[in-house]
Amino acid sequence: MKEKVVIYARVGSQEQANVSLDRQIDSCKSFAVKNDLMIKGIYKQVGASAHGTQEKFESILSNMYQSNVETLLIEDWSRISRNAIEAMEIENRFKKNNKSIVTVNGDKLLL
């Protein structure tokens, strides 16, 4: 059975939305196809700062549970947060709930 994933893409402004959101989503879709993953949803966030996104990820995590999805796909860690400590807190919350966050470019979260 294919692993189920959801995609998360975020940009800071409407001006970036047309190009950057599509690029992020396409990158994640290509990764999913290449790795035989089943995409169960796509989350887009426009005009939001990376700061204060804890609530957004709580909602995504809850939806992942309801849909029996194992993994959140992102282009890179800056899509979660540009603040490494906040990104680590979000990653730890996912791990505690037996969910994972995977970057399509293979980046590891570094402090």
TrEMBL record:
<protein>
    <recommendedName>
        <fullName>Resolvase/invertase-type recombinase catalytic domain-containing protein</fullName>
    </recommendedName>
</protein>
<dbReference type="Pfam" id="PF00239">
    <property type="entry name" value="Resolvase"/>
</dbReference>
<dbReference type="InterPro" id="IPR036162">
    <property type="entry name" value="Resolvase-like_N_sf"/>
</dbReference>
<dbReference type="GO" id="GO:0003677">
    <property type="term" value="F:DNA binding"/>
</dbReference>
<dbReference type="GO" id="GO:0000150">
    <property type="term" value="F:DNA strand exchange activity"/>
</dbReference>
<feature type="domain" description="Resolvase/invertase-type recombinase catalytic">
    <location>
        <begin position="4"/>
        <end position="111"/>
    </location>
</feature>
<dbReference type="InterPro" id="IPR006119">
    <property type="entry name" value="Resolv_N"/>
</dbReference>
<dbReference type="InterPro" id="IPR050639">
    <property type="entry name" value="SSR_resolvase"/>
</dbReference>
